[in-house]
Amino acid sequence: MTDSALVVGGTRFIGRHVVEDLLDNGYEVTIFNRGNHDNPFSGNDDVARVEGDRTNDTDLRAAALSVKPDIVVDCVAYRPADVEAAVEIFSDVDGYVYVSSGSAYAAEEIPKREGETELCGCTPEQAEDDSMDSYGARKAEGDRIVDRAAKDGVNVMSVRPCIVYGPHDYTERMDYWLDRVLNYDRVVVPGDGQHVWHRAYVEDVASALRIVAEEGDPGEAYNVGDRRLVTIEEMVDLVADAADTECDVVRASERELSTGGLSTSDFVLYREYPHVLGTAKLAALGWDSTPLSEAMARTLAEHRESDRDGSEHDPGREAEERVIGVLDTV
């Protein structure tokens, strides 16, 4: 008998890839969402859909009763109350996986490890907040709910991705850098180019969620991120290699950026202190990540077919050109 999977979400970025991974691994897949976004599986008879609001417990319970899933992957649990309801509603499934975040970690350690690195606290006010300021706190509280539910005998786990990139990324964070490399032969990189913000290729996040649902231990959290990390400069080089183009990296310090009215914080995917997640625990379940060259090639190929350019993250090319001009005279 074929196993069934319910994906809460399932149409945008991570959820979309989760559905594809589950199909590739022989699951019968149903997605559950409000229908606010285009459904990429609308013409696919292998993917069923149940409409409803995941914040409405009645809707979520109805989906559980109609689908009777073996596993559940919850991509859109943004508040602790969402997780609290889900672990009760799906208390009898073989595996419920909550998509948490590397932002759940409070301590700046290298690397951040499950069960060792301190998590963010979460006040009642943060638990109800919708802003990014409380995002890590809310995700951490969801992790604690997973831990408590497992102690009550529920097969629940969580997965903590770092920054996710890849095809169909509506955040357009990587699209900014892809667009820069494709359109300019000189790309400004903040700082000395050696800063590290751990990233995770989206197809690897999808496979991690499935593997944790199948093989993970109840109550445990699993970090997911590229097994080989690269600096921000090396990331630009990867893009250039994927595009088969030449691109000179122009490193600019805070002082040098200021000549163009810019700051290091104006550049997306830049982080002053390294953010690195340990991934050995997930790898021990049999998971591995896609080679970076392949991951970037697939990301770039889809970017070229899309209309995304990352312009909302653009610090301004004219400002960058002023910085380049100053550096050229040094």
UniProtKB/TrEMBL annotation:
SUPFAM superfamilies: NAD(P)-binding Rossmann-fold domains. Residues 300-319 are annotated as: Disordered. It holds the Pfam family Epimerase. It comes from the Archaea. InterPro entries: Epimerase_deHydtase, NAD(P)-bd_dom_sf. Residues 5-85, 92-225 form the NAD-dependent epimerase/dehydratase domain. Belongs to the NAD(P)-dependent epimerase/dehydratase family. This is NAD-dependent epimerase/dehydratase family protein. It comes from Halorarum halophilum.
